[in-house]
Structure prediction request, 934 residues.
Amino acid sequence: MALSRSNWRSMAEAIAIPIGAILVAMVLFGIFCAFYGKNPFAIYASIYKSAFSNWRAFQGSLLRAAPLMLTALCTALPARLGLMIIGNEGALVMGALGAITAGLLLSYGSVLPPPEQVQNLLGVPPVVVMLAMALAGMAAGGIWIGIAGALRHYRAVNETISSLLMNYIAIALLNHLVEGPMKDPASLNKPSTFPLPEIYKLGNIPSTRIHYGLIFGLILCIVAYFLIQHTTFGFAARTAGGNVKAARVAGLPVGKLTVTICFLAGACAGLAGMVEVAAVQGQANASIVAGYGYAGILVAFVARYNPLAAILVSILLGGIVASGGALQRTFGMPDATVLLFQGLVFIVVLYSESLYGRFPIFKDKPPEPAPPNPLHSSPCISLGVAEKQDKLKRTSKHPAPFSSPDSATPKFEV
Amino acid sequence: MTEVADAVTQAMTPIPGVVPPPDLEVVNMSKHFGTLIALDNVSMKLKPATFHALLGENGAGKSTLVKCIMGFYKPTSGQVMIDGRVCQIDSPRDAQRYGIGMVYQHFTSVPSMTVAENLVLSRYDSPGLINWKQEYQELTAFMEAAPFKLPLDATIAQLAAGQKQKLEILKQLYLKSKILILDEPTSVLTPAEADEVLGLIRQQVTDGKISVLMISHKFREIMAFADEITVLRKGKFAGAGRVKDLTVSEMAEMMMGEKREPQPVKKVAHREPIPVLEIRDIHANKDNGLEAVAGVNLTVHSGEIVGIAGISGNGQRELVEVLAGQRPATAGQVLVNGEPYTMTRAEMDKHRVFVLPEEPLRNACVPHMSVAENLALRTFDRPPQAKGFLLVFKAIHEMALGLINTFKIKTPSPETPVGNLSGGNIQRTVLARELHSDHIKLLIAANPCFGLDFAAVDYIHGQILEARNRGVAILLVSEDLDELLKLSDRILVISGGKFAYESKTEEADFAQIGQSMAGH
Prediction:
């Protein structure tokens, strides 16, 4: 049937183009390596070996993939509403701050506990503390991106710019807090908050060195997919994202949708911040700002805003990041090499957005014999117009996310 | 009409001092899209200095034919001959070289640029450096001589639809095209504007300056302005002739393949009309912040069609957008069934308000979502299509199959993105969604038949009347006065954001309607 074939082709296109883009980026990176005097094949072999070749190495990749899954959602969810949010890093930082604040308050009763208190915990059960930290992190991140969404809807402020600039505010706030109001006097060289007590730290999945953040990431990606594709809320969001005028005709609350989606997106990145605090750092300091937020944008793009695809892309990118150390050690490449590779992937993937609909192999062929469809048998005057227009449309450019004018709130309104 | 045609017969002998337009002939033109035959061995001849109409229903191959002439499509077989010589036209730019220019159905001007900039932009030989002083002098001189005037400094976004269409035609005159191809040039114009524009073009033809090949659905225009017609049906040549030798029913027969009488409109009288929609002193702004609707009051009763006529750009679009929830009102109140109405989904649901906005793809559909999803836009959050907050895809799919059948939406499958359908089928999709409910109480429709063929127009009119006879209150905003006079019980004219005329349709005074539309 026409339906299954057309789905098959567009799915093949959706898979082949990002993979092709990554391959092209690998060739470009290979050229860079060759100029650097290294054998690109040896480098790729080394990346594979240190990221995916065995379970132990793969755990390292998964460990780095966990926050990427969460931060990717911060871009992927609003994208379905036609919003381009890149405030992932800021939301992650705010989530980390929210989580550490909640964690310290529930541990010691204060973010600046006096020395005698450090030995004396309040005795709140670990599950409660962790849950509170997760909720606080999500709320902080959610509010952060929710502000960008509200500014967008109510004051027509460009959400891409505002969320980008809010990253800097969040990082500055973090630096201010860890160097002043929340500084642990013991942290001299590296200003940090007080550390979380060991019992309140998010542990590892048994018999691995992967923390539970990976589970959070997997669950949230699946939930996000379900939310967008299978719920009435997701339907409303996709409608508003596809054509805000149609959404208004249907009476959908566009403003509420915008702010809610932005809140949820920020909450995902905020949870990543909580994971960084509770599982990795044990405290909040400048190490929180490790670029997971920005890498999450890349993941969302490569995954074409599909939360399930984001899982796979996160693991791939996690592996590349994990292999950075090995490249440095084995080949003597600068540690920025991996960033360069990431940057190349990002640019090529952005470019590849313009390729959808350009390859004849992914185009539906017009049905060879007219399918025995009751609609065709009726004497329809406009016979063939749909096919003709299909043809025309497929030759035109697939709308790239930045060029699409279908943003949720086109005009200023109060 | 015959006077015009006679005048043309004289005009065919060259007038001294005027370079006559060339003779254009299409020989055995075919165009296949894969296995679809859009154009099958069509030949036609456009004599110099004639006004030739290309007639046919949607999908008959008219647009394909002219796009082949323009070099927009490469014909599968067949030739274009100009002055008896075979010409290879591979692009609109080639066509321009032969003096052929086309005015497309949709505007092709840059909205943020001025009229002058758009005119200069349209030139294929635009210089690298533009001497604006000189260009302005030339453009001013051109405007003086042009059949219609536009302010050179106005940006396109400020122009009304009629003015934009005039600019498209001016562009071709500016490019010194000798053969003008017009693709439904009046579909965006009011009858008065259409007559004005076509009359001015007609004058150019009569003066022997240009030839015109016009795609049209409208017999009225063809009878009034065209000399000859060629009719296409389902991609094939279906007839040709001189307008003065033909009657409307003969042309319709060529076009439809059979005779058809316009169906008489049956209206049921309702005894006790209840006010359903009350608009109280509504004000609204245009996109640019200027006031478009300047305080209107209106009541629409159950079982009544209230028609709003007016030249486009007089606030009717903004008024509909306010009622559809797409634009905030700056002042005033809307009541439905006596309760304040703020266009939320809950209120739409409660009062059974439905909307058929103009340009359905832009205003009422999500192009990349499927036909089924678009059909479910009103109902996806209610049982049986939703269980709690979960979507029930089976119910959505089943409703779509039903509506596709009932409303004869031609789509490869319910999962096809609605943006891939043809205009008529997109219209049907929206119509199906908005009209299939039995409980509909209020319908707001804006130019529901814009750009559709006869069969589709008849069908939509039938659906609207049927709804009225069921007791639905209908507000119909249209730029087609004939449509309003046919359907409405009461007719109002909007001019400058205010109602300038109101009467029952049977008592309507046409002269006064015309004057009110023109702002007198």
